């Protein structure tokens, strides 16, 4: 199957599962369920769930066993986008090509929508089938640690506190290790765990996720500079406009491109212990690097 077909097929499986995992709009109170569905079914790339499913497959597991964690990851990711777009945070009007959640449902409802999506992530994750090495306790601990104040929220704190300041490369990397790389790494880890992965292979996927996650962020920052709002589905040039520290602003555009390529190569090297079963993950990493061009 081509990568394009693979991405479309896995995204469709995730969307169908997500539909089943989310409360229906007619369930009361209807507004919050409509807002949750608005945020989730807005056409995201489903990158985290796809990485989760691909990692399960690379470790000899079944896609069906990894669907619950895959959806939980997308729910946590979507919550972070809804809250990040709020006026008190990044203050954005456009996300995934549509008005942001608070623009449609109001700020109070968007706060609650993010809270509900985060809570729903754990309801869904708790449905994951335990295997020999990993039980529901391990799955929950993995995602909770990633969503907490040491990772996702910690990264957002460093981001907020860095606003208007000139950051060093080290400080910038620290933010994105916590924000972007942590959730991508956990996506791979959770998928692999459903396949009863060995500790050695889990470690290899952790290194892969770290490098892939940072490469993804470098490219995201480059795209913010070189692409249009229409293509991005979010406000282009926003980082520059609010004087936010980004890879291009700290390293320059050329050095950022080289950094993305270096990180992608490091990600590929990390995959070696998984052998040829990791070819889909390699393809995904290359695809993410090339989305710039
Ligand atoms: C806890 C509020 C809060 C925030 C945590 C992750 C995060 C920090 C904020 C989200 C906004 C942001 C700029 C994150 C960086 C990672 C990133 C590039 C997200 C966009 O991911 P894509 O491109 O989006 O996969 P789609 O829409 O395709 O799912």
Q: Keywords for this structure?
A:
293 residues, mainly alpha, Farnesyl Diphosphate Synthase, two-stranded antiparallel sheet, binds geranylgeranyl diphosphate
Written overview of the protein:
By secondary structure, this protein is mainly α. The protein has a single domain (about 5-290), classed as Farnesyl Diphosphate Synthase, CATH 1.10.600. Helices cover about 70% and strands about 0% of the residues. The protein has helices at about 5-20, 30-40, 45-60, 65-85, 100-105, 105-125, 135-145, 150-160, 170-195, 200-225, 230, 240, 245-250, 255-270, 280-290, and strands at about 95, 100. Strand 1 (about 95) and strand 2 form a beta hairpin. The relative contact order is 0.12. The mean pLDDT is about 95. Geranylgeranyl diphosphate binds next to helix 4, helix 8, helix 9 and helix 10.
Judged by helices, strands and strand pairing, the structural class is mainly alpha
The helix/strand order is HHHHEEHHHHHHHHHHH
Give me the count of strands.
Answer: 2
Largest sheet strand order: 1-2
Stated plainly, the CATH topology is called Farnesyl Diphosphate Synthase
* Poorly predicted runs: none
